[in-house]
């Protein structure tokens, strides 16, 4: 199921499953929508770009693939150019997790993420914990939380369905989002579990273990740097990082000892 895609995007495509119409936000030459249509996974697709240059490139690729009647390329930010009920899935790949969070919680997203049966497929470059947190708070059903390697780089791929246990009323979703505590304010042990993902941790897979060790190493480096400073801010920062390191070590003991 390659269709010219990288291993990373091939994994994203596999998580889409069979859908009617998917929107690919930040489509980057429309490679993913083209592959999904060609593979028969979707009947139609919408490639969305926020600037004109990549949008023009996407249009050229779609034209070269002779798929202009099935893939529409639109200019806009996030869900803004998508009409209510027009799609039953979204893919967002290759962006930072915090950017994805902002897209998924914007007003234009509400008609879609409150739609029963809607599918969300994400491949964040960082901050996957914020997305896991959002999905859980909105009651989305997890389909996949996996790590994979492409060209020596480890990536997280997430897939959720807005199912029967999810908030499916726009007003309820909006109210929930307004009251949602910021991710950074969560108890440190809970936040570190979101950062790494409970499903990958429970799987005991090598990539999850490596990700955990990288998180610990990162905090060791930060602490070394902070030890050189004696300001009040540095002391507060050091206490936070030490708490995170302790929580990560506890996860290592629990899942990989």
UniProtKB/TrEMBL annotation:
Task: Note the InterPro entries from the entry.
Answer: SAM-dependent_MTases_sf, TrmK
One example GO MF annotation: tRNA (adenine(22)-N1)-methyltransferase activity
Q: Which domain of life is it from?
A: Bacteria
Instruction: State what protein this is by name.
Output: SAM-dependent methyltransferase
Source organism = Ferroacidibacillus organovorans
Lineage, uppermost ranks: Bacteria, Bacillati, Bacillota, Bacilli, Bacillales
